[in-house]
């Protein structure tokens, strides 16, 4: 019994501490479990842990997508609005073309930084991870990240090229003129054009460096095609010819001088066709021309501009010697007095013209002047032939035609009836060819047919009067006292009026 009591006492002494221990352990276990659950809840969050920053931007409590969008909204927007400005000068005024970085699909890649932020405290023992996470309450986790930058600069060259036309300054070729008998040369001036390669390289460098900036376009010289030493070659006298005219023929000589002054000083550019009719202008008094004999339908009549064909014919022969291309030329219907057959060139209205083309690559200058009774046409330009080249011109009769039978009669009511005057005798017709022999260093190398000219045969021209016939003269009174010697009275019919004709 005593033993039993002692056992009960001992049991109580043992059980109470054990129960206390068990109870304490139970209490402690419950607390650790709640912490465990809290830790699990905190650690297993699918968002970036709180108070984590990327380049000072808080991305805590955001999903990776939200964090990336937030960073892009700040940094990408700033990047998109960065600009590169191309600057140049157009027509003396400033010129600017500005492009945004988003024109080149510029991008900043923050994805690796977001992954780094999300990975913070995601590995290791639970407790350690928990401690790191809870420590963020007081100490933020800062990530400094240089995002990967990309852009598409493939369009940079095209955008730079848009400036090319605006900033282009055309070069000025050297020019040559003949003023008051003297050659005046204007020196060439280089132009400027956009150096697309250099300018594009500067533009792309700013893009590659992710920097806003200004690019002053780079220009390079554009050399003129024609330079001073080249145009100076046009100072050569490449063709010259002279004819003479008769002094005292006032109207005709006035016209020759007027036409010569209009040809003198004319410049023909490379490839250009010169029209003599256009240079001389209309044959009117207002244009400085007087009336003088001209050939009209094979007959010489007075009209404005008579004599100008001597200018065109003289010029034609200078052109042949300059070996320019004759585009249009027509001979007179009759032979002219100042040139042999086939050497002449007539003009008429706007349908017969002397035209020739400058077949060289430099300007050609015409000089036409009168000295005394000599008309001279000179052609200056570039001598394209070798120094040993020489020419010989000659004509050749191809065909002769007899005058038509009969007469060409003109009736004149102002002339007494029955009176008949031969105003022009019959004219034979001729067909001639003009040739050119070409020599090199004295050796003939070619014969060239220049033209064939037909001069028409014509019958005699007669004017017959149709006016009133004058009454017969009264007879002399009879003389009753004979004279010592009978007076012999000789009557002579009036001579036909002499008509002097001058070929135009």
The outline comes out as: rod-shaped
Give the averaged pLDDT, no decimals. Answer: 86
Count the strands? Answer: 27
Q: What distance separates the N and C termini?
A: 181 Å
Counted by DSSP, the helix tally is 11
The helix content, as a percent range, equals: 25-40%
Strand-residue fraction? Answer: 25-35%
Low-confidence stretches: 15-30, 481-504
Radius of gyration: 56 Å
Describe the structure.
With 504 residues, this protein is α+β, with helices and mostly antiparallel strands. It folds into four domains: 1-40; 45-226, no CATH class; 228-384, no CATH class; 386-468, Resuscitation-promoting factor rpfb fold (Single Sheet). Helix content is 28%, strand content 32%. It contains eleven helices and 27 strands. The strands form ten sheets. A four-stranded antiparallel beta sheet has the order 13-21-20-14. A three-stranded mixed beta sheet has the order 2-1-6, with helices on one face. A hairpin with a 2-residue loop joins strand 25 and strand 26. Helix 1 (2-43) crosses helix 4 and helix 9 (250-263) crosses helix 11 (308-322). The radius of gyration is 56 Å and the shape is rod-shaped. Residues 15-30 and 481-504 have low confidence and may be disordered.
Would you summarize the structure shown here?
It is built from 11 helices and 27 strands.
């Amino acid at each position: 019994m005593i033993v039993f009591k002692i056992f009960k006492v001992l049991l109580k002494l043992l059980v109470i501490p054990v129960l206390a221990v068990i109870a304490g352990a139970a209490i402690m276990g419950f607390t650790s479990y709640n912490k465990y659950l809290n830790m699990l809840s905190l650690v297993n969050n699918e968002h970036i842990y709180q108070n984590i920053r990327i380049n000072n931007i808080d991305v805590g409590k955001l999903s990776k997508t939200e964090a990336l969008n937030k960073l892009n909204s700040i940094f990408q927007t700033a990047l998109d609005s960065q600009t590169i400005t191309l600057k140049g000068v157009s027509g003396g005024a400033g010129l600017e073309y500005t492009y945004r970085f988003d024109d080149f699909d510029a991008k900043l890649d923050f994805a690796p930084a977001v992954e780094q932020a999300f990975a913070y405290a995601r590995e290791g023992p639970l407790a350690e991870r928990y401690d790191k996470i809870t420590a963020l309450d007081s100490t933020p986790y800062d990530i400094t990240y240089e995002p990967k930058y990309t852009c598409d600069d493939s369009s940079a060259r095209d955008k730079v090229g848009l400036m090319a036309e605006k900033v282009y300054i055309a070069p000025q070729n050297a020019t040559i003129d003949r003023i008051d008998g003297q050659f005046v040369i204007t020196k060439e001036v280089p132009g400027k054009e956009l150096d697309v390669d250099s300018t594009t390289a500067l533009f792309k460098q700013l893009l590659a460096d992710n920097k806003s900036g200004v690019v002053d376009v780079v220009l390079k010289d554009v050399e003129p095609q024609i330079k001073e030493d080249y145009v100076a070659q046009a100072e050569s006298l490449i063709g010259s010819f002279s004819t003479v005219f008769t002094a005292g023929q006032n109207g005709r000589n006035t016209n020759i001088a007027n036409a010569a002054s209009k040809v003198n000083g004319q410049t023909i550019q490379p490839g250009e066709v010169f029209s003599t009719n256009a240079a001389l202008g209309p044959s009117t008094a207002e244009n400085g021309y007087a009336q003088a004999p001209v050939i009209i339908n094979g007959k010489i009549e007075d009209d404005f501009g008579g004599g100008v064909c001597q200018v065109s014919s003289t010029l034609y022969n200078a052109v042949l010697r300059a070996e320019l291309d004759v585009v249009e030329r027509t001979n007179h219907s009759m032979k002219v007095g100042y040139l042999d057959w086939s050497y002449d060139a007539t003009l008429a209205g706007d349908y017969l013209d002397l035209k020739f083309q400058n077949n060289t690559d430099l300007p050609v200058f015409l000089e036409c002047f009168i000295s005394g009774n000599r008309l001279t046409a000179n052609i200056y330009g570039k001598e394209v032939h070798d120094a040993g080249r020489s020419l010989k011109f000659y004509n050749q009769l191809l065909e002769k035609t007899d005058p038509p039978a009969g007469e060409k009669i003109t009736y004149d009511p102002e002339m007494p009836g029955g009176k008949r005057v031969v105003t022009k005798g019959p004219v034979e017709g001729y067909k001639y060819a003009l040739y050119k022999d070409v020599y090199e260093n004295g050796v003939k190398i070619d014969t060239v047919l220049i033209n064939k000219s037909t001069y028409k045969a014509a019958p005699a021209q007669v004017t017959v009067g149709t006016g009133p016939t004058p009454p017969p003269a009264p007879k002399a009174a009879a003389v009753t006292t004979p004279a010592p010697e009978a007076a012999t009275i000789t009557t002579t019919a009036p001579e036909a009026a002499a008509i002097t004709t001058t070929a135009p």
